[in-house]
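Q: Can I see a sequence and its folded structure?
A: Here is a first one.
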Amino acid sequence: MRPSDYLRFYAERFHTVEVDSTFYACPTARTVENWNARTPQGFVFSVKVPQTITHDKVLVDCEAEIAEFLEVMDILGPKLGPIVFQFPFFSRSIFPDRHAFTDRLVPFLKKLPADHKFGIEIRNRDWLNAEFANLLRDHQITLVLQDRSWMPDPLELGFDPITSDWSYIRWLGDRKEIESRTMTWGKPVVDRTTELSSWVDFCYQIMKRGVLVYAYANNHFQGHGPATIAKFLELWAANGFGKLTLPGRINAQQATLFPPPD
């Protein structure tokens, strides 16, 4: 298969994709036009905000960069889904505490357009608490949930992590540990059944609340991202939670990896 056919092939099998390349640089308009042309109606692109904004400038003097990025992403029209601010771990030399971070974050959030979906991923474990969740909730910003080695899963948080009418889940795993076993990503090498069973229950409960779920699996979670999705669907079906199927034709009302349960 030619690399130019990868996206079309993927979009025949999944509802949505998380685009990692936008983290490294804002794509050209032509690139985004090609993404749009190679995917069916109802497909959803979740995109990461460029690191210039989240890592280099850390929300300071980046109005031009965020405006450029949103203008290019808007080429996708209804295919544009969540826009994720993926922040790094911040040392105390950058932000002494969470409040120093939110003092910078809140004015920035107030400038974001209300007609887009925005999510925030933070990697400072001790910043995750009810107060931070409430701040995001006040601005209708989604807290990105992660399954990775040093971050808590939803059951460990001790507060409601749903901060808008949609949720965003990233199954990331332990990169260092799995790369000690393999550097090829064609099959699972780690059994994550226990973790995925917990996520199945969590997703079912929040979907009953009417929350739309976007979820993505990194190869580093088990060794093979598509196999992680297949295992999730298998566990979902085994729990009798209704049918979740991979798309044939996707309609705009079902533009998520996990449609509402039957």
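Q: Show me another, different protein.
A: A second, unrelated one:
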Amino acid sequence: MVEDKTIKDDKIRQSVREAYSNKVNKFPTSNCCGSSKSIANEIPESKSCMSNGCGGDLDLSAEKKEQFMKRYGVQLGYTEEELNKIPKESNLGLGCGNPTALASIKLGEIVLDLGSGGGLDCFIAANKVGKTGKVIGVDMTPAMISKARENAVRGNYDNVEFRLGEIENLPVADNSVDIVISNCVINLSPDKEQVFREAFRVLKPRGRLMVSDIVLLKELPNAIKNNAKAYASCIGGAILKNNYLNAIERAGFRDVKVLQENNFSTTQFLLNNDDIRDALGEQIETLKEFEQLDIDSSSISVKATKH
């Protein structure tokens, strides 16, 4: 019997929710764009760290963790000035870019962040929109929402609100926001087209979409597509780049443009991930065969407009 799509999608969301609940207080040794071991190796205390995909744990002192995460953020495209102005606890190292840098956020605007995590992009956006603007973060993981709200209190942000919800069914009114941003989250959704339709719905006319995400340049083998840990590591649920861009256009957006693109080897990322290797078991041989292929994935930043 073929599993009902709704049931399958719910299982995917639950798996992702559980995975990201476990990341709330952890510090990554590799992100959705590849390994950050090069940074960790420069910090003496971090040499005992494990590569556990997006959000693996580092055995570091509090001071070294802060140093690591700041340099990690810079690697993703944030400036030290931006990171110094926000609660350090909001930087969980789970993104694959800095959508706020390319969104041309202005004073007084309303910004919506899809999959807001610990609040990093929300707080950076809040500093840009000022007291007359507002930022809304939506996340389906209760632990992340709690963490983000704590960070908002810690940073005295009264222009940021975090709402529990799914990005396929946003708890946001029609035509109410100026900008929708997202950072390495839409690839985790089992219904990406619905996410873009929802983003289009909540944007005001002439509103902008600015997302950073992982896409494929070649199809993945079924062993990876059907692996829950690969899905939660921002890889298993990724779709082909052209399909991703077409989904944005089908939602009604215009002027769809890739502003940044960074190719990387999906296979190397997965082979260096101990959890995924263990979960694949004998299927790891399929992945090793896949290793013969060239660069097969990309971290992209895409901008589009609601006309």
